[in-house]
TrEMBL record:
Residues 261-305 form the LysM domain. Pfam families: LysM, Peptidase_M23. It comes from the Bacteria. InterPro entries: Cell_wall_metabolism_enzyme (IPR050570), Dup_hybrid_motif (IPR011055), LysM (IPR018392), LysM_dom_sf (IPR036779), M23ase_b-sheet_dom (IPR016047). This is Peptidase M23. Keywords: Signal. GO terms for molecular function: metalloendopeptidase activity. Residues 1-23 form the signal peptide.
């Protein structure tokens, strides 16, 4: 009787050990499968993100996709205090280099872009990858124009075209031909009106693009909320000056004092040294570049200085 009990206990223990070993073997065999499934899930997620970006570029920034208005956002969008815009992968919209009218106050109103001299029929190209949001005609404004929203958050506007060669909701790559230069709309001569906007906020294209050199100013541009509104504030300040009102918040902008200036960090550079060279405070340097006084400067790094 005792021997039978011992045999039964031994058989039960052996069964438990066998089940445990089998379970461990099953888990060991399952682990590579789980890893493969996770890899498949990750790839699927990446594909899904790319698909959404193709449908709505910068979809995490913009509240809507509308084809009826150029400036379609107003107070419906939340503008971040700072945002770094990637400028790599660009293509100049035209090979012409002569700027006939700059961005800023002009004829008692704001000119929100650059006018570049082109001739009727000249090739106009997309500046970055993106999706065409608008292809419209405005008789007393842009004439025949194209608006493209890009993956980096920018929207570019190409005005006074003689012909538009893309359709709304069409995805384009940087360098793709989108139209031909012209003289349509409110224009006194053939040229390309080129605008760059971020969430509807105007950014002077010269802050990012060097048309004479056919290159970008730096690999990225730091957008700072309200910094691009200084020209508007200056216009209001001049109006107030004529009416005898107190002038407030009239800080000058780079577009008023000349071209924006950048400094490429070299060995031995410090924020103090750069502030003395460009006659700008260290705090202002930090604010313009989104850095702190304690930030380590890297050789080759580009800082905005005005």
């Amino acid at each position: 009787m005792i021997l039978k009990c011992i045999r039964t206990v031994a058989v039960a223990a052996l069964a438990l050990v066998s089940v445990n070993v089998a379970g461990q073997d099953l888990l060991a065999r399952q682990a590579p499968i789980d890893r493969k499934l996770k890899a498949v899930d990750s790839l699927a997620l990446i594909r899904q993100i790319k698909a959404e970006q193709a449908v709505y570029p910068a979809y995490s920034l913009y509240p809507n996709w509308r084809n009826d208005r150029v400036h379609a956002y107003g107070n419906t969008v939340q503008i971040p205090d700072t945002f770094r815009i990637d400028l790599t992968g660009f293509c100049m919209p035209t090979t012409h280099t002569k700027i006939t009218s700059k961005c800023g106050p002009r004829w008692r109103r704001m000119h929100n872009g650059l006018d570049i001299k082109v001739y009727i029929g000249d090739t106009i190209r997309a500046a970055f990858d993106g999706k065409v949001r608008m292809v419209k005609y405005e008789r007393r404004g842009y004439g025949k124009y194209v608006v493209i929203r890009h993956d980096n958050g920018l929207e570019t506007i190409y005005g006074h075209l003689s012909k538009q060669l893309v359709k709304e909701d069409e995805y384009v790559k940087a360098g793709d031909v989108i139209g031909l230069g012209g003289n349509t709309g409110r224009s006194t001569g053939s040229h390309l009106h080129f605008e760059t906007r971020f969430l509807g906020e105007v950014i002077n294209p010269e802050f990012m693009f060097d048309f004479p050199k056919q290159d970008i100013v730096a690999d990225s541009y730091l957008f700072i909320r309200n910094a691009n509104r200084y020209p508007y504030q200056r216009t209001r300040a001049l109006a107030n000056l004529k009416s005898g009102k107190k002038i407030e918040n009239t800080e000058s902008s780079p577009s008023e004092s000349g071209a924006i200036r950048y400094h490429k960090i070299r060995k031995g550079d410090t924020l103090g040294r750069i502030s003395r060279i460009y006659h700008v405070s260290i705090d202002r340097l930090c604010k313009m570049n989104g850095i702190k006084r304690t930030t380590t400067l890297r050789i080759g790094q580009v800082l905005r200085c005005s």
